[in-house]
Amino acid sequence: MKQPFEQAVTRHGEAVLRVCRAVLGPGPDADDAWSETFLAALRSWPDLPEDTNVQAWLVRVARRKAIDITRARARHAIPTDDLPERVSAVGSPGADEYEVWATVAALPERQRLAVAYHYLGGLPHAETAELIGGSTDAVRRAAADGIRRLRQTYHTDEHTKGASR
């Protein structure tokens, strides 16, 4: 790969972080998946073919790292007495990130993953279908349903806030 690795981190880092947060939720696990993604990418960078779609490749690596962290969660106890680490603001859509990420996390799994990989990760529906399984049309439908549900949630919230003033 002739492009410097630092440029790839700068150009695609936020998209990878958005995918990690959409899959794992906001917090240290998503930040860890982001770090692990770029550590693994750095190791493979010199051997990457010239015509590689770097963003799609990084999103796939991020997906695998998120799965690794999800599996690790199931094997380890979660401490509750400690305060949570502060979440990075990089790649957050707006100041109230917890509400956004909680709403995305509340979507059904296929819709959440389709939204994460397609809209937040920038992958085409065909590549998203390869990642989560199913046909391109089914993934397109799941992504559209997820976006519709998010719009309904925020549209309802806007009317509720306006009515209470």
Automatic annotation (TrEMBL):
Q: Which residues form the RNA polymerase sigma-70 region domain?
A: 9-75
The signal sequence is: none
In terms of domain of life, where is this protein from?
Bacteria
Q: Among its keywords, does the record have Transcription?
A: yes
Q: Which UniProt keywords apply?
A: DNA-binding, Sigma factor, Transcription, Transcription regulation
Q: Where is the RNA polymerase sigma factor 70 region 4 type domain?
A: 100-150
Known SUPFAM superfamilies for this protein?
Sigma2 domain of RNA polymerase sigma factors (SSF88946), Sigma3 and sigma4 domains of RNA polymerase sigma factors (SSF88659)
Query: Its family?
Result: Belongs to the sigma-70 factor family. ECF subfamily.
NCBIfam families with a match to the protein in the record: sigma70-ECF
> What PANTHER family does the record tag this protein with?
RNA POLYMERASE ECF-TYPE SIGMA FACTO, RNA POLYMERASE SIGMA FACTOR HI_1459-RELATED
What is the protein's given name? Answer: RNA polymerase sigma factor
